[in-house]
User: Fold these one by one.
Assistant:
Number 1:
Amino acid sequence: MSSLVVVRHGRTAANAAGLLLGRLDVDLDALGRRQAVALAAAVTASSGPIRTVVSSPLRRAVETAEAFGLPVEVDERFIEVDYGDWDGRPLSEVPPEVWSEWRSDPHFSPTAGESLHGVAARVDEACRDWAARAGDGSVVVATHVSPVKAAVGWALGADVNWTSHVDPASITRIDVDGGRPRLRSFNETGHLVGLAAG
């Protein structure tokens, strides 16, 4: 049986400010770097042999992946959703009617952006590929909110949607047996207890 350990990157200043953060390429903040170290220690202690560490190409995910101290393979399919014209802007600026449609329709794409359905299609393919390569070990995937939700959707055989919360530096575990995924845990954050902000 193989395992995908899907982790969200540590905090960034944009996350802390409540901005929509899609394809903008920013670094972790000081707390985010501490979160990445704690995350890597927790996964290493609990996941058996790690075969590969995979990352989105964005710096915040790569920095999180590098905390494992292993070679990192970049997979573009794990990049964050493209928020298009809303990238880098406060969620409060999105008109209520647009936000309502965005939350209810996985095929909705913001102007110059990407739909959650599009994210799910590429993440499903990536999860199948990496699960097949994991053998009887684990593959760690350092990624973002929407790809984490898409990976959970893949494991559950459900559409990806906005109705779950994914914390920075959280851990989600998916076991794969005979090609069949099974969600084992979602949004683990116990390893972050006691980390000071700032």
Number 2:
Amino acid sequence: MRGMLDWDRFLGLAWRHGLMPLVFSHLLNSFAELVPAEHLQRVRDDFQHNSARNLMLATELCRVIEDFEEHEITAIPYKGPALALQVYGDLKLRSFVDLDLLVLRGDASRAGAVLTARGYRPHLNLTPAQESFLSRSECDRVYLREGRNIVLELHWAVAPPFFSVGIEIETVWADRARTEMCGREVSVPSPEMLLLLLCVNGAKDLWTTLEPVCTVNELIRRYPGLDWERVIRLGRRAGALRMLHVGLVLARQTFNVPLPERLLASIDADGPVKDLVDEARLRLSENEMPEPGLFEKTRFRIRSRERRRDKLRYCVLRLFTPTYKDCSPELPTSLSFLYYALRPLRLLRAGLKRPADKPVV
């Protein structure tokens, strides 16, 4: 095995697909004698560094949640350390670079003030007009704690408005479960809701890495008593049943995860799923991870919706909803209506950029 593997490429792929902790843990625990000494030391160092940082981030997350509770702010950890514990049962087995919290939209401003008092600052210095456009076009605000190199994303929705997914924070809160983190219990999405959220997020990001596919697989295996009827109801109600289908098929084809027959029949009846899965698998097989272009993102996301009204809503909101990036400090507030006309032109210009250029997102 030593001579057969290109270890630099293998370890690089583990990083590229977000699976470094999981792959490195298996190497250290079961195959250490097969790994060349110089690569084994690299694996051990990377794994230990990731473990220490994960513990630090989990501790910080619990303290932020405690601060929110003191101010009667509802908060649900999303992704990050909470997902590591809920799906893998071990903080060390996921890699994450930031913290994510879901809060009610009406609490977002107060939550930001609590974070500021804790030493965070907004990542972007925005004018009042830009703040207004951000709250209408985005689903989160990024905060930085520079002294400790921590990034925290405060979400008031699970996806941007243009994505048109019918999952409200109130629904996630009402459907919550509990998990232990740093010696205390915290609220997290139920396994059924979490499965849907993972598939929605995978569709939004075009399934460009194996990590979300692996997480879907691990979630299903960790909770054999999943209420599949409820999962389907949640997906259908949110207009995200096809996104759910695509995520489940990717997990089944990649990791052979078992799925109930009724769900397989539902997937088989959803015609576009096969093409979407084939496209995602092709993207996953690429050696490098080029940034998908604006048109590629739009096409995949629209085809991931099963309802025509959601496809139309995506196009209209994406095309005509200005973001804070469209807002110019030079334009008087009285003329802000012009942003709605200028937005399509800006998107068109972004779509015509060279592939090497980063598109507007």
Number 3:
Amino acid sequence: MNRILHLALLVPLLCTVAPAAPRLFYSKYFKGSVPEFTAITVERSGQATYQEAKDDDNPIHVQMTDAETQELFDLAEKLERFQHPIESGLKVANMGTKTFRFEDGTEKHEVQFNYSTDTVAQALLERFECIAETEQDFIALDRAVHYDKLGVNDALLALDISMEHKRAVAAQQFLPLLDRIVKNESFLHIARERAAAIAEAIRKPAPAQEKVQP
């Protein structure tokens, strides 16, 4: 009985001291832009959360691919987990206040900047912006599917352009919406054709080309 009691007490303790997984956080505040605020959290597992307000009660949750996730964390490592300033200090226009943060248990490092000349910081900013653009495309398509059938083709065109420019992230998230459009004859024929083509590209992507890391 003593051994059983000991194990029962030990299990919660082990759960308590289990190491936290690393996570990356990005936010941008640019007054007057639409949206003015965006925030993205990416867990090491690839689970990502997108918000358009600090108190967003309906954030979007997506699963990024291993390659997409690895790229973000590799760039963060090259920036030494944000332990050093990356602001250029140059007199440039206000481009919004951006924040990079790395968290891993008790370890936490954060930098804020308006503009950076560091090519690695620029690359990481670009990847986070791609995530934000993708989720904005998702919101637009989801809204059109439910409330504006005539606007579905325009929303699909925006997604198509993102796909062509390799800016779509976690593209699998679009498949339920795309399949719904393809199967529903109440949508315009051109929209259904475009949805089918995009879904096919997501399910059978072209072989990835090697790219040079900054």
